[in-house]
Amino acid sequence: MKAVVLEKYGGVEELRIMSVPDPKPEAQELLIKVHSTALNRADILQRMGLYPAPPSKYEIPGLEFAGTVKDMGSEVTGFSIGDQVMGIVTSGAYAELLTVHHRQVMVIPESLNMQQAAAIPEAWLTAYDALVDKGGLQKHQTCLIHAGASGVGTAAIQIAKRLEAKVAITASEAKIVSCMDLGADQGIDYRKEDFVEVVETWTNGNGVNIIIDLVGGSYLQQNVKAISTKGIIVQVGLMGSGKPELDLGTLLRKRITLIGTVLRSRSLEEKTALTQNFSNHLLSEFDSQFETVIDSVFPFESIAEAHTRMENNLNTGKIIIDIA
Ligand SMILES: NC(=O)c1ccc[n+]([C@@H]2O[C@H](COP(=O)([O-])OP(=O)(O)OC[C@H]3O[C@@H](n4cnc5c(N)ncnc54)[C@H](OP(=O)(O)O)[C@@H]3O)[C@@H](O)[C@H]2O)c1
After folding, report:
1. Residues 139 and 255 placed together within one structural domain of the fold
2. Given 229, 260, 291, which residue is the final one in a domain?
3. Are strands 257-260 and 227-235 parallel, antiparallel or unpaired?
4. Residue nearest to atom 18 of ligand 1 (CA)
5. How far apart are CA 85 and CA 34, in angstroms?
6. Which atom number of ligand 1 is nearest to the Cα of residue 172?
7. CA-CA 20 to 30 A from 140: which of 9, 84, 90, 214?
8. Ligand 1 atom 21: the closest Cα is on which residue?
9. What are the pLDDT tens digits along the chain (324 aa)?
């Protein structure tokens, strides 16, 4: 099969497509013919050597896929050859074929094509986990979603609105309108406005119940100011700069919960539980309410350009790579 193999870490020139042996499914695994994958910030860090994947003979990046079942191991039940599925993987989705445990995949809703499906797994599972499992977001609560126009942010806005919560987002000016179109109630241009001040006015001085933070760095101290008493801050990403400082006095006084989370290092059981919860509760909403937000689609051969687009923060929503 053809795959992007990282032989060295570095710039986009290290994203070279090569021929490597086809993977073989283990007893509980599906062999997937990948139609589309999508980029994640972690792919850029991995390419630079800053986010290592589990060791393997060929280091193939890529955390999510949409494709069809081509073969399966002897213990797999409930799937047929040709089924259209999507899911997260620990690595290996920048390839024509991959293997994945059968309990870790989701059936693609009928109304979606492969590109739309590839936009779902990583962003929507992360957003669902952060808002619902970690944050416990309830109807009429308020939440602040940083980097609202990111893949994770655009999913989080829609999930929070589906739960009938009130949503504020931070984004650069040009991207705020897309977030409002998805249902955000309050947009904050973080380059010109102080999000703590906007949140204070927006919540009548109460602070938001939940913050989903993809930025970190100097945002931590600001988040502690913007959160309500007994609020929950879920730290999902670390795109920002600045040294995090934390006013522990305020943390104690407000009885704040600060939670860190990643998907990749979770056990199969944890990934399966998250995938199945999300499928049972929200997957059917893609046939009616939810919108996959696709920034752009690149052919496999142009994967370096796609990385450059993400590195330059030009995307709103997901960057898709068509493999077949
Ligand atoms: N914990 C997990 O399991 C998990 C899973 C998926 C993703 N993540 C993390 O979530 C974050 C978002 O990932 P993604 O793939 O959704 O990103 P993405 O689609 O590439 O979007 C990132 C956007 O964030 C904004 N941004 C970038 N740097 C920023 C900064 N310093 N301050 C404020 N905003 C900034 C930019 O939009 P503006 O133009 O609006 O600034 C940028 O376009 C990443 O840190 C990623 O590693 C974590």
Report:
1. yes
2. 260
3. parallel
4. 150
5. 10
6. 40
7. 214
8. 150
9. 999 999 999 999 999 999 999 999 999 999 999 999 999 999 999 999 999 888 889 999 999 999 999 999 999 999 999 999 999 999 999 999 999 999 999 999 999 999 999 999 999 999 999 999 999 999 999 999 999 999 999 999 999 999 999 999 999 999 999 999 999 999 999 999 999 999 999 999 999 999 999 999 999 999 999 999 999 999 999 998 878 899 999 999 999 999 999 998 899 999 999 999 999 999 999 999 999 999 999 999 999 999 999 999 999 999 999 999
Of 260, 277, 303, the position where a domain reaches its end is 260
What is the CA 49 to chain-centroid distance, rounded?
20
- Identify whether residues 31 and 104 lie together within a single domain: yes
d(CA 5, CA 60): 5
Residues with CB under 6 A from ligand 1: 40-42, 122-123, 126, 147, 149-152, 171-172, 175, 190, 214-215, 236-240, 261-263, 310, 313, 315
Contact 159, 128 (CB under 8 A): yes
Q: Is 97 left (phi over 0), alpha (psi -120 to 50) or beta?
A: beta
Do 26 and 79 lie in one domain? The reply is: yes
Residue whose CA lies nearest to ligand 1 atom number 22: 150
Which domain range does residue 161 map to?
A: 124-260
